[in-house]
Design a protein that fits this description.
The chain is an all-alpha fold and 340 residues long. The chain is globular.
């Protein structure tokens, strides 16, 4: 159990840091960076890793029942739509509030959704998991509040007038973030529904247990990548950004984005592996720990890179309280899972 918790935390750390190389790319528009990223992380990296590492790749996926293909494919496609909606919500309500609402929805629904597939755990375990998830959600809410206060502090320090966001736009942004979070939980469902067959088929081909995580990621990433890649191809045309690929720093940018793609893919695969090590409630426990660790990592990296230097002491105190709740929530969830 401890091994599973540690792997889930490590996977969250990788997810929280995967976008860091983007800061060092030069000459690319937003659309150039992310279209190339999604092409690599959704198609190139998982395809190469799967074909190279999985013994009997063709037999495993060629014999996978149609209903599992459909369930995993549709759930992963919805995950892709959810991620795109999250980026749209940020345009309405800002990064802090959009991130908190989206991830909060993902943790709440995504952690409970696997119960539909895996079944309800014993009452004592379920109680601790539920309490832990609620504590994590409290931390997410506090982080969002800290972010909103920080934005106001920065506006005042720059002498700018506060942005007049209409109630309609705010309501629309919140609705988009919630719906996006609901759809993004398709990742957790796809992992839960595909694991039984893929684990059995993978082991039957002589693969070690950890290869199951690689096998699960293949249909999830391919299906989810369809909508993400299509969206950014449309954005490249809309923003006339194709020409920005023809720059002298393309090779350097490609290398940095490849690192991002590998980290992103590895984080998801490690989550699947961690879930397998956490027992009967592994998908629920692992998903909560994974997403919580990623949020905490992103926030801490923001502190280290001085994103909060102009925030008031009130904002920082609320932020630290939020981080404390997230850590406490992980410990409660881990303890509950240990009662199995």
């Amino acid at each position: 159990m401890i091994e599973g918790v540690l792997w889930a935390i490590f996977a969250g750390l990788m997810l929280g840091l995967y976008a860091l190389p983007e800061k060092f790319t030069k000459g690319f528009k937003y659309e150039n960076t992310w279209s190339l990223f999604f092409l690599l992380t959704m198609f190139v990296v998982p395809s190469i890793v799967s074909v190279v590492l999985i013994n009997g790749f063709g037999d495993i996926f060629g014999n996978m029942p149609t209903d599992i293909w459909i369930k995993m494919g549709l759930a992963s496609f919805l995950w892709g739509i959810g991620v795109m909606m999250w980026s749209k919500a940020i345009n309405y309500i800002g990064l802090s509030l959009g991130f908190s609402i989206f991830i909060g929805t993902v943790i709440l629904v995504g952690s409970l959704l696997p119960f539909i597939v895996d079944g309800i755990p014993p009452a004592n375990v379920l109680l601790f998991i539920a309490i832990g998830i609620l504590i994590v959600l409290l931390g997410i809410v506090l982080n969002g509040k800290a972010g909103l206060i920080r934005e106001k502090d920065e506006e005042k320090s720059e002498g700018e007038q506060e942005v007049d966001t209409s109630k309609g736009s705010m309501a629309t942004g919140i609705l988009i973030a919630v719906i996006g979070g609901l759809l993004a939980t398709g990742f957790s469902y796809a992992n839960a529904v595909g694991r039984p067959y893929l684990h059995q088929a993978s082991v039957a081909q002589g693969n070690p247990d950890w290869i199951t995580a690689v096998a699960i990621m293949f249909p999830i990433f391919i299906s989810g990548g369809i909508v993400m890649t299509a969206y950014f191809l449309w954005q490249l045309n809309k923003k006339n950004a194709w020409g920005h690929f023809k720059i002298s720093s393309f090779s350097k940018n490609l290398f940095l984005i490849l690192i991002m793609a590998v980290f992103h893919y590895a984080a998801s695969a490690l989550f699947a592996y961690a879930a397998s090590k956490l027992g009967a409630s592994g998908n629920t426990v692992g998903y909560a720990i994974f997403n919580t660790a990623s949020v905490a990592t992103a926030i801490i990296s923001g502190i280290v890179t001085h994103e909060w230097v102009r925030a008031s002491s009130k904002a920082r105190k609320i932020l630290y309280a939020g981080l404390g709740c997230m850590v406490l929530g992980i410990l409660v969830i881990a303890y509950g899972n240990g009662q199995m």
